[in-house]
Amino acid sequence: MSEHLIGTISNQVDSIIKHAEKKYPEQMWMFDVQKASWDAVYHAHDEGKRLIYVGACAPVELIYAFDCVPFVLDMIPTRLASTPDVAAKYIDLAEQYIAPTMCGIDKVDIGAILSGDMPDKPDAFIYSTVPCDNSRTAYPFIAERLGCPSYCMDAPFSKSERGYRYMAEQYKEIITFLEKLTGTKLDWDKFREIMIISNKTNELMNKIADLRKIIPCPLPGRLLVLNEMIPGMTGHPAMLAYLEAQYELGQKLASEGVGAVKKENYRVSWLQNMLWSNVGILDWMERQFGAILVMDAFGYQRGHLFTDLDDLDTVCIDLAKKGLALPMIHGAAGPVEDYIDLVENTMADYKANVSMFIGHVGCKHTWAAAKIITDLIQEKFGIPTLYLDVDATDGRYKKTDEIKAIITEYMETIAGYKESAAN
Amino acid sequence: MNETLIDGSELKNSAVEAWKADGGKVVGTICCHVPEEIIHAAGMLPYRLRATGVTETSEGDAWMSPFTCSYARGCLQYLIDGTFAFIDGLVASDGCLMAGRIYDNWKYVDINKDKEEIFFQQIAAPRTFTPKSIEYYREHLETLRQGLEVWGGVKITEEKLRASVQLYNETRRLIRELYELSKSDTPVLSGEERLRIILAASSTPKEKFNEQLRAFLATAGSRKPVAAGRARIMLVGSALDDPEYIRIIEEKGGLVVTDALCFGTRYLWEPVEPEEGDALTAIAKSYLGRPVCPRMVDLHNEFRDFMIGMAKDYRVDGIIYSRVKYCEVWGGEGLYFNEQLQEENIPQILLEREEIMTSSGQLAVRAEAFIEMIEKQVGGKIHE
For B8-35, what is the mean pLDDT? Predict the structure, then answer.
């Protein structure tokens, strides 16, 4: 019998690790966290644990507290994006049922479910009405198709105190949902332990984000991609270990005044999603132009901490604040002012001098706000933004050479601009 | 057809002009999750924005990019180019993300310096139908009420709200009666005409509209039946506000007898039950609970059931699923109803479209092919 999709990915990660152990022994912390993530999902049922698929805003700390394994379903498309032929299989299948213009992330999710390549059904699916109209179509369908117990949270439109309370009430319902699912009451002592790990994780994440503000930036753009795993594993010791290693490295390099690139010429900010289908572009920009991605809108995370580890009401409010601060819910799922604040903070805090809207075509609501934010960048920071349409999960949309040519043209223009400004 | 009703379907119609001439305020709405009753109770004219007849969207494209719903770009175009210069306020819900961006972009477009005078408000419309979401939605409706009171210098009392609910429920009743005309084997109303009437409903004061529609219905029985269609068609899909689109289908022999469109049966249909608590609670329950659009995450199946129920009630021979390119809300809805339509043996065709009617030739060809396919399937017996 052929391996199912998660098994295949897990095995791929194992192969990568074997290779890395020989070639990059000092960087194993980057691979260990990936192994921990995929192994946990792959072996959940073998280890007698319940596997819970999750969408945005799902309370992973609570899921861990119930001794279940959370799995962010969107990890599949972002992982498969680097192997275009595999991603294409699921995208093409999904397009037989849904509009080809829909988001590639949801197309891969739907295609994977329809293909029958996913393993036995999970024990539950917890999702929400964010981040976008695509997921609002995809997730309920997936829930129905999986046929397992599911809970859908309605995320508030605005990040107001009332909105947080609205979410908090639903987190309480999720506790009841998980208690019914597992047949156990929430073990608060265990939950507290996980909240402590979660807080440490978020503190580290915030410190690492602060390191990226330093000139030169001590950490490469690629780590922003890996850091996207954080929300799905907050509260897991392996994530904490990964961030500790990253922070240690960043701090060491920063104290020595060493940057991730030899000569940091440009500090780049990406304003939309990550280009999972072509992450190598980040390495190429660093080599080619000394241009380092200091922060991207998707990767921008200011993790909210649990402020009280004993009071249920406060914990649920904190879960709401954490959930609504996740990418891209933090910027793109509500009023445009959220997106403006996100971009403005990114540009200012990280001292970016290059602005790129590397726009995933599936993310239409960010495209629909692109002029507002790029006008703002021009006005406040005097930086013209590069617009580049890409498909973040479907590498067939635009080839690497084409992407490089467009970025090169822009970088040359920017370089000219800086020289003339200097004159 | 009644000339006044036709006039009401125009973007700038005589009823709006008269309203403005009397010093009345017009409040534009985006998406059908903005309850018009609240605006009406403030003594203002709710006017649902649309892009009917738009022929170019260069401004909309510049602000929203070409990777977005052309209906939304068309609405923004009309806001920017002054077509909607008569509106005094703009209220949006977060019906879908594109609808939200019409509102966002209009706030930031810098060409209309008088915008400080414009009332802007956006309300949340939850995407699940639960006691908690109703309560949350109701609070946002309360915020809208308060916002309108301050801006308009009026008091929106419970009594006024209930009167508005009653008036709108009468509109709903009349619209259902209008649709009843199409159940006949020989309807006296075409789908194109019916859409014009619904557009009038969304663009004119309901007091006048109800009066006109009542008068129309009183004499409708004496109308000559419209040309017999070769197939009875139901339209479902993204916001469709262009009668021209239906005209092309009907010219090819499809008689559009019903729909599941937000400028159709999904606009004003299910009554607000005034006994459901206070007026705002009743409005919240009604607006959130009706299967109006696939935006509701937990009502996909209810929406499908509504569609199929309507298809049966109106004895449709086929469904045209008309999806605006880049409309994500409708982009995957087939996942929820394709299988059921096959089981019910209801033929369906998916047509992608853009708000600007540049591909009318293709629409005509595909509509005709679909109708021919239906005729072959049913042996042409239905409309003999």
Answer: 95
